[in-house]
Design a protein that fits this description.
single chain; alpha/beta; Rossmann fold; Arc Repressor Mutant, subunit A; 2 domains; 5-stranded parallel sheet; 11 helices; disordered N terminus; disordered C terminus; CheY-like_superfamily; Response regulator transcription factor; Tscrpt_reg_LuxR_C; DNA-binding; phosphoprotein
Length: about 230
Amino acid sequence: MTETHSDRGELADSESRPRRIGVVEDHESVVIGLEAMLSGHPNLTIAASAPTVPDLLGSGQQLDLVILDLRLADGSSPKSNVEQLRDAGLEALVFTSAEDPYLVRLAAKAGVLGVLRKSEPTATVIAAIDAAANGEQVVTTEWAAAIDGDPGLHDVGLSPRQRDVLALYASGEKAARVASLTGLAPHTVNDYLARIRAKYAEAGRPARTKTDLYKRAVEDGWLPVPKRDNHG
């Protein structure tokens, strides 16, 4: 098909227009901060913001990228939020304090363009948003760590079944209950737990007690970081 002058003009307009950014964030100060950061960047503009993904999608705004916080007041899952955005044809860049490796891992494995810390310098944030708005992957330490595991921790190579057993047992379930939930025989669960402990010991990360196993599961992102008690 021959490209017409009109086609070329529409393409040029698309490439030259500012990229329209949506923000899913329930702290207004963060949105204001992003607006201030991008105020001097002619190619980027915050076009909409909302406290939840459904609210942003319901705004009807045409967007090129969504900046997504992980821990939202509605308690939504990062995986679900990313999937909703992708179903709507939108890519996401995670903008987070990154204090919870479990949430970061959920978002990273759901297929975001990158994971960016809120503590990064302004120039780094702008460059990352600019790249993501153009559909480019934003490779950061947080993003890589979420995919591959914390590089500071030696991977113990648990199988998917062993991870299931670890997550259930370390979260407080008794071995008999883990057996019931997984469909495994009780002696198989105990054998798995022994192997899990052995693997952590071999990696230099001993897990002799149930509390130790809980700590290892949190470190590796198999269980969420416990929420802080704001009243304590």
